Amino acid sequence: MVLARSLRNHGTSHKLAALIGPHVSEPSRAVLHKLYDEVRLVDVMDSGDEAHLALMKRPDLGVTFTKLHCWTLTHYSKCVFMDADTLVVCNVDDLFEREELSAAPDPGWPDCFNSGVFVFRPSVETYGKLLTFCTENGSFDGGDQGVLNSFFSDWATADISKHLPFIYNLSSIAIYTYLPAFRQYGHNAKVVHFLGKVKPWDYVYDPRSRSLKGQTVDPDLQPNYLLQWWELFSSSVAPLMKEEYGDQPFHSGLSENGFHGGASETNSGPSPLPPPPPPLLPPQMSSQERKQRWEQGQADYMGSDAFSNIERKLDSFLK
């Protein structure tokens, strides 16, 4: 919903289509119909590749195979796929000048593209080949990104014009891991991608103080994209959800604690607010916990993970 609102706010001239699974509630579907030109119900596909998913410690990524349904949108000649955890911060209609399969490099392994944003041409033939490929080869990471990188295996070497600049899929994690580059190029960002397990809707937002609980950001270091996401939700999406849900809470809706993301997909009444995310600086953090927070975009970039400390560590290795 927030993604669609951000696209509309930045003046896209293209139609918007949403692919949803059967678990999405009727009120939520009604809101999506207000924001998208087309809302299509698709089956949830699962790779069943538990071994590879276990390696990634991300069993939730199996259902990302559902993404392959986008190739069935054959009433469109060309599309740009965008994950639900992306936010558009300027007009990106120029992406339609690119060809299949255009995507930005993944911050974890730049010879692979990140499948959160990519340009493609819907095709029944390509869809069939992708399903066959999945059946015969599986996925090296257990998710859609492994499949798509193996299927479009020449992306890294064949045609540089299919390499989208990183600003079209700016990982929120990369802001912390390479802060100097973000300072240099970040003002050109076009699409922000909230990678990791902790998503924007997992936070608690207080609209009165315009702040997030459990999150500390120095505004002089970087624009607070999480706050941008929540301000867009509270101003443009929450009112639509209140219209559709009525007295039925869409989690706990507006309360003394502010907004909490995510709609309740049951009719059993309000669900309690989960606790806010833990503080970014827990005492005596283990190396594994610290690694997990890095992967979730929650680095302590003002403290132990500051660039000066990273630079000092690199210097010691190089020496």
UniProtKB/TrEMBL annotation:
Reaction catalysis annotation: L-tyrosyl-[glycogenin] + UDP-alpha-D-glucose = alpha-D-glucosyl-L-tyrosyl-[glycogenin] + UDP + H(+); [1,4-alpha-D-glucosyl](n)-L-tyrosyl-[glycogenin] + UDP-alpha-D-glucose = [1,4-alpha-D-glucosyl](n+1)-L-tyrosyl-[glycogenin] + UDP + H(+)
Keyword Cytoplasm tagged: yes
Residue spans of biased composition, Pro residues class: 271-282
Designated name of the protein: glycogenin glucosyltransferase
GO molecular function, one term: metal ion binding
The organism's place on the tree of life at top rank: Eukaryota
Presence of keyword Cytoplasm: yes
Pfam annotation, one family: Glyco_transf_8
Cellular-component GO terms for this entry: cytoplasm
GO BP, sorted A to Z: glycogen biosynthetic process
